[in-house]
Design brief:
The protein has 110 residues and is mainly α. Helix 2 links the parallel strand 1 and strand 2. It is globular, with a radius of gyration of 14 Å.
């Protein structure tokens, strides 16, 4: 993501990973600013994005980068999101065809 940003290349996340509320802080912390997902996921993810402080999300990412197992990372991210974000449903069944993207200006979340 950083290399693409330096070169002016947009990076986006498409699919079910982008629609997982507990992973959104990690994705924001990694520098991701464009998400694409099914329409029924949008309200939940927009709400989650509005709850996130990007500086804290970057700290979360820095912490995760020191971890060595998926289990350790998952536990840390779940604990972090549980302490900072209002709980929302974590799985969204796809009831509508196609994807809709969310794009948040990078300057708002720097």
């Amino acid at each position: 993501i950083d290399a693409a940003k330096v070169r002016g290349i947009p990076v986006s996340m498409c699919g079910s990973l982008a629609a997982e509320p507990h992973l959104v802080p990690l994705l924001i912390g990694l520098g991701l600013r464009m998400f694409s997902m099914t329409p029924n996921s949008l309200p939940h993810i927009k709400k989650r994005i509005r709850e996130i402080d990007s500086t804290q999300a970057r700290q979360l990412t820095d912490e995760v980068m020191t971890m060595s197992t998926a289990e350790e990372i998952e536990a840390h991210v779940l604990a972090w999101t549980g302490a900072r974000c209002e709980k929302t449903q974590s799985a969204f069944p796809s009831t509508a065809p196609g994807f809709i993207g969310l794009h948040y200006p990078a300057d708002k979340y720097q």
